[in-house]
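#lab-general

N.A. 3:47 PM
ok so I finally got the sequence cleaned up, no stray characters, all 434 residues accounted for. can someone with queue access submit it? mine expired

B.Y. 3:52 PM
send it over

N.A. 3:53 PM
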Amino acid sequence: MRRRIETDLTRRTLLQLGLLGAAGAMLPWTRAREAWAAGATAPHFLVTFFGDGGWDVTQVFDVHDPADATDGVDVDVPQAVSGLPPSRIATAGGVTYISNSTSRPAADTFFGRWGSRSAVINGINTRSTSHDQSRQLVLTGYLDPTRADFAVMSARQNGADLPLPHLLLSGPSYAGPFAGLSGRVGGQLSQVLGYNKIPDANNPDNTVRAVSAAGETAIQQALETQRTIDQFGALTGRIGQFHDANVRGDQLASLANSLPRDSGDGTQLANSVGAAFRAGMTASVTVNNVGGFDTHSNNQNQSNSWQDLFTFLDQFLSGLAAQAGVASPTLLDETTVVYCSEFGRTPELNGDNGKDHHPWTSVLVVGKGVHGGMTFGLTDRDQVGVKVNFATGRPDDTGQIIDVTNLVAGVMTLVGANSNDYLAGVRPFTAMVA
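B.Y. 4:20 PM
back already:
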């Protein structure tokens, strides 16, 4: 027999499934949403896309002349091998980039539509060519498990009072000290929140929520795990976290229909994420989107991934722009999109016409608060970042190299935070901030 939802079950189920933790709530989420709608304060949402594998930024972002065979940077696989025409330098919406209308036309479409709202940052030092290390460095700035990534920190800054401030749909995430604000949303949560309505035993004219069959199974598994943990006293001192998780669990249950779905379709994801934003569920979402960048032979495969990336991102931004915002004309007016990968690719092709790991990368930012229509940062003939002025993003011998810590601090500035509150003593790269 399906049991009725009780406080203890909601709390334990969600906690033990690892879907949410301590609340750290400051205000009821409804007050924040009502304040947004009343225009008292404008929301600032963040969507972080991660392109897994380490992308070859010379294909699009990091501009080196494809026709210059003497600069030490190979942009294209030779035409005799690939059968494709060479790439060229192009500018659209103010952004200068590398175009190839045959192999990745979606990049031309994207910058034609969104270049004026986009900024590219080149010459970022990841300090590593290890996939695992570089993922953590690009997202947090540090190889330190106590550090949170910028998506989670943004959730704390702009949505700590919401039911699930940071939604991790897929990909890497580092919650650090803010683990209670972040949760991975997937099939389990959807099933557990698949409530049925049954007659109230005390008043047949009313209905109450009951856990679905799948949810009941998950609850039984969670409670069994709970009993095992309890035997070892691992939950000592967590009463406060239980209480907070219960509050968030109830809020999540009421917002189940707003759970984003990562279907791989940009328009569908935009609609789903938009519904979650407007419902007051979350303020920050992370998605591992287009992957396949970990190629070491036939660099044409990189071009294929770039085509997929820009096709998806164009759909996603169009979807946000087509939806009404909470307190603005569109959701895109309230949302910053960051697209990154763990590192870049070597300047020259290897013997298999591929490229290997390289500790210099680029990042794309679009939307709210972005100084759009600009390309910032630069790499030299060895595809190594040069010193730049952090206010203008232009080469400057008196400036400094853009380190991942500077980038993360800059993103925190972009989303409205005092970066020193999160990365003390780190100078933020702010050229991309409007």
